[in-house]
Each structure stands twice: as structure tokens, then as C-alpha cells.
Amino acid sequence: QSALTQPPSASGSPGQSVTISCTGTSSDVGGYNYVSWYQHHPGKAPRLMIFEVSKRPSGVPDRFSGSKSGNTASLTVSGLQAEDEADYYCSSYAGTNNFMVFGGGTKVTVL
Amino acid sequence: EVRLVESGGGLVQPGGSLRLSCAASGFTFSAYTMSWVRQAPGKGLEWLSAVSGSGAYTYVADSVKGRFTISKDNSKNTLYLQMNNLRAEDTARYYCAKGTTVAGTFDYWGQGILVTVSS
Predict the structure, then answer these.
(1) Angle at alpha carbon of residue B54, lines to B23 and B105, rounded to 5°
(2) Longest dimension (CA), chain B
(3) Labelling A104: which of A3, A58, B43, B89 has CA 20 to 30 A away?
């Protein structure tokens, strides 16, 4: 099971938007609406930011949004804030044989 | 409040074994799929294995199949990962994660436990 493809880095100034892509295949991202996004600050537990492609858990700011088209999912962070600087990982359910797969991660830098 | 606390990590020689534990509280442990995820130094997150709420069904990543075994004891609210024939490339921080009703989604994670495989 290959990892989903994410750009290694993305950046934006405070107040700007940044969009991270996550490309998989028809066996994972394209086959299910079970794409999640996690924020990970080094040394801390990852935090669920988006699930089922575009849903936000309670407590996650609406500056975070998700979408999907075909085999590619995207996370957009609008109105960048300093505390948004972190690593972001996408994941997708991949069926009962492979269960799930993560992306390689994207380091978001707030300039 | 949901809490997941990993234990059992440490330094182990190549070829050795280790059993990680994850003590869970704050939710009905038997109702949720649980997973182990790791992050090697300088690398991304890697899903390793999952077990259904009842413990009847398990899923294992190809990268650790045949060496790692996941299990859970619902009477003790504890998740386990038995790791055998450890290799240097298994050096990582290991996280337990609680699943949700949405397949492959984790809403709570532990802080992680460090496993170092070295002679």
C-alpha cells in the first residue's frame, strides 16, 4: 500500500490562505469519502481537523476546510495564523484489505 | 475526558521483542476500533494495525505483517502491540489512536511512546 502523495511544504503569510493536496488512487481517496486531515505539532499528539472529506470536528475553526475531486483531496487553511504552523497529514480509508493509508505529510510555514 | 496512555517502549536490540500497551479511559473501549500508528525520525505517520471493537477483526499493514500483532483486552480497557523480530527501521514513536464510526478516522491519540532498536 503506497502512501498518499502530499507536497512536502507549503507556506503563506498571516491572513493568507494555503491549500494542501493529497493524491491517491481509486482504491483509497477516489473510492471512499473517508478522507481525514490531521494537524501535528512535533512532540504532541496529532489532532483531527477534517473527516469524511469536509466535516470539521467540534472545536476546529471554520478556517479549515476540505474537499475532494476524483483521486485528489485538498485541505485549505484560510486566514493563516501563527499557531497553524505544523505538519499536516491526510489519510484515507482503503478498504478491508488495506484498511487505511496516510500521506507523506506537508509542513506548513507561516511566514 | 478521553485519555490514551502508551507504555512499554524503550531500547531493544535488533531481533528482539517488545510489547506496547495503551491504557484507555473516558469512552466505551469495546465499542471502537483502535489502531497503532508510528512516526520514524524525520518521517511521516505510518498506520500499522487496527483491531475492531470486539477484538474479533484485525488489520495489519504489509510493512509489519508477520512481525507485529495487535490485540485488545476490553476487560482492562487496554490495547496492545506485540512487536517481534525488531529491526533498526522500526525505531519510531508509536501512537495508539481511537477510531470513530467513520472508517479509518481517528479522533483521539495518545502522546506516543518511543521505541529504539539498536545494538
Answers:
(1) 70
(2) 42
(3) A58
* B34, B36, B37, B45: best to mutate for the A interface, most A CBs within 10 A: B45
d(CA B60, CA B63): 8
Of B74, B83, B59, B64, the C-alpha closest to B9 is: B83
As beta bridge partners, residue B18 has B83
Contact B45 A92 (CB under 8 A): no
Residue ranges of chain B whose CB lies within 8 Å of a chain A CB:
35, 37, 44-47, 50, 59, 61-62, 95, 97, 100, 102-112
- What's the average pLDDT block by block, 10 residues per block, for chain B (119 residues)? 97 97 97 96 94 94 96 97 97 96 91 97
CA distance A46 to B98: 12
Provide the pLDDT for residue B51.
95
d(CA B10, CA B22): 15
Rounded to 5°, the CA angle B31-A92-B43 comes to 105
CA distance B82 to B55: 15
